[in-house]
Input
Amino acid sequence: MNKNVRKAVIAGNWKMNKTRPEAKALLEELKPMVADIKNVEVVACVPFTNLETALAVTEGTNIKIGAENCHFEKSGAFTGEISADMLAEMGVEYVVLGHSERRQYFAETDETVNKRTVAALAAGLKPIVCVGELLWERECNITEEVIARQIKLDFFGINADDLKKCIIAYEPVWAIGTGKTATADQAEEVCAFIRATLAKLYSAEVAEAVTIQYGGSMNAANAAELVSKTNVDGGLIGGASLKAADFTTIINAAENG
Ligand code: 13P
Output
């Protein structure tokens, strides 16, 4: 990553894992391991039921807490949903939006990702917006079309100041939970393409300011090479974020890289 203009963000996405006692134990273990980290923003995005526990356990530390989704309406008859205001009021700082699992299993579309991003920004949350191509799309050589379309639609109507508050996570769907990591060169190629797309839509200055993460089977062994790439500003980590030692190794790779 380019440390002159951006700070690395290493975020764990716990997905549907950890009860409250398990969440407490993992964060208690992680706290001392990352206490000296200065140059990396450390974030844990946890299930809704763990947010209050996670916020209490990490109070006064350098670990920030995020949610894994939010609804786009402020309030109302949306059974089972959680609004951005509800999260912000708790002290939650980040929210993952448009994750491929939401797109794949819960009918999330670019239109609803856009609405959720607008709502999250209005509530003062920092959205981590996920984009990425399917294996079939990569094989058909349309990765750039797919990513450009997602970027244009997901950030439609969002101004430059708000865009700078967003993190974009490039997560090739074929690399998520499969053990197949994009090579560092593949990750760099698409992250650089995302930055070039933002430069066209906004400006070079805005594009340089935006944090672009890689996600997809990132782990203790491959993190250093991935974050060594100019346009890879950290990672969104699933499985490896559930183990304090592995997550810490990834954070150290970004801190020292
Ligand atoms: P894995 O690291 O388990 O592949 O998950 C990546 C991911 O989906 C993070 O949001």
The two ends are 8 Å apart (CA to CA).
